[in-house]
Amino acid sequence: MKIYPIALIPGDGIGHEVCPEGIKVINAVSDLLGGFRLTFEAFPYGCEYYLQHGKMMADDALKILEPFAAIYFGAVGFPTVPDHISLHGLLLPVRQGFEQYANVRPSLLLPGVPTPLRDKKPGDIDFIVVRENTEGEYSGAGGRIHKGHDLELAVETAIFTREGIRRVVRYAAEVALSRKKKLTNATKSNAQRHSMVLWDEVFDEVTADYPDLQTDRMLVDALAARFVLKPESLDVVVASNLFADILTDLGSALCGSMGIAPSANLNPERRYPSLFEPVHGSAPDIAGKGIANPIAAIWSAAMMLEFLGEKEAADRVMKAIAAVTAEGRTLTGDLGGQARTTEVGDAIVQHIRNAVG
Ligand code: GGG
Predict the structure, then answer these.
(1) pLDDT value at position 74?
(2) Nearest CA, atom 1, ligand 1
(3) Neighbours of 55 (CB within 10 A)
(4) Is 205 within 8 Å of 172 (Cβ atoms)?
C-alpha cells in the first residue's frame, strides 16, 4: 500500500468547507481502487492564526511542510487582516520557497454548466494557462517612502529572470506537447520594453527546441478578447504571474463559475512539495453558510492525485465531477442549483462508487 502524507491547510473562509469535500472524494476513490492512501495532517495557518500569533504561519513552516508529498490548500484572506499581509504571509512564501514556479490552471467547460458565451459548448473551451508563479509582478520587491506625506511614493518592482522565464516556458511547452501542441505567449512587450522583451526573447529561445509545437505571441489585452471571442483557438497559454492571474479569472467565468476552477502550484522537479488549491479565494460573503461550490477543490484534489502518480484515481474523480454537472440535479447556487457544499461532495462520491469497471 502506497501512503502519501499530505499537509492540509484549509486557510480561511470557505477553505474550511471545500477541503473536507476534496478529502471525502479522495478517500472514496482510494477505498474503491485500493493500493494507495492519502493521510492528512492539518495546519491552522491563515488569518485566525495571524490574529493569535501576529504571523500567517509558523516561522519554520516551510521546514515543517517540506517532508510532505504535497500540500492541499483551501483559500487565504479574510476581512480581519489586510489582503496584502495575508497573501504575502502565507501563499506567496510557500510558492516561492518551494519553487512552485508552474501554476497550472485549466479552463474546461464541463457538461451541463452554462457558459456566458453564446453558442459555445463543451469542447469549445478547453485550454490551460501556465502561470509563472515565483517572480514577475508578485516578486514583493519595492517599498514606500514619505509615508503619510504629500511626497509619498510607492515602488513595486516586477522582477523577471532569464532562468525564471526559461523554466516556466519549458514546462508550458511540455504541457502543450502532451495536448494539441499549440503554445501561446501572453506578452505586453510593446509597452513593457525591458521585462517583456526579455520574456519574448526567452520564449523564442526555449520554443526553438520544440519544432513540433505551433507557437504564437499575443499582447495580453488582445489575448483577453480572444479568450471571449475564440476560446476554441487556444490550447496552452504561458503568462507572467499577474497577467495569468487575471486571465484565469476570465477563463473561470467563461467556464461558468469561479467555483469550479482548479489549480496546481507545481515544483516540476519534485525537489519540494507542490501545492493544490482552488483558484477561488475565501469568499467571506458566503463563508460558514455551507453553500460554497466544492468542485474547484475536488478537481484540485484530482490534479494532486495525478501529480502523485495516481492517474486512474484522478480520471475517476474527473469523470464523477462531469457526471454530476451533466446530470444537473446537485449543483450549488453559483451554477444555478440549490445544493449544499456537502451534497455536491456526496453526489461525486456516489458517482465514483457507482462507476462500472
Ligand atoms: N485558493 C486561492 C486563494 O486563496 N487565492 C487568494 C488570492 O488572492 N490569491 C492571489 C493569487 O493567487 O494571485
Answers:
(1) 98
(2) 75
(3) 14
(4) no
* Pairwise CA distance, residues 346 & 24, whole Å: 8
CATH superfamily of 1-113+257-357: Isopropylmalate Dehydrogenase (3.40.718.10)
CB within 8 Å of 194: residues ≥ 6 apart? none
Total residue count of the chain as it appears in this document: 357
Cell numbers linked to 132: 509563472
Spell out the domain ranges in the chain. 1-113+257-357, 139-254
Ligand 1 geometric centre to CA of 278 (Å): 9
- Lining ligand 1 with CB less than 6 A are 75-77, 87, 245, 277-278, 280-282
Residue among 87, 134, 137, 275 to mutate when testing ligand 1 (max atoms within 8 A of CB): 87
In this prediction, the residues of the chain whose per-residue pLDDT falls under 70 are 356-357
HSE, side-chain direction, 13 A CA sphere, residue 152? 6
The grid cell for 159 is 522582477
272, 66 in Cβ contact below 8 A?
A: yes
Fold of 139-254: Rossmann fold (3.40.50)
Please provide residue 339's backbone torsions phi and psi, each rounded to the nearest 5 degrees.
Answer: -70, 155
d(CA 107, CA 143): 35
Predicted pLDDT of residue 317? 98
> What is the structure's pLDDT at 65?
98
Distance 241 CA to ligand 1 centre (A): 12
What type of residue is 319? K
d(CA 342, CA 268): 32
DSSP 288-306: TSS----HHHHHHHHHHHH
- Going from the Cα of 211 to the center of ligand 1, the distance in angstroms, rounded, reads 35
Please name the residue whose Cα sits nearest to atom 6 of ligand 1. Answer: 281
Q: Does the model's pTM come out above 0.70?
A: yes
- Dist. CA 87 → ligand 1 center (Å): 7
Given the CA of residue 245, which atom of ligand 1 is nearest to it? 13
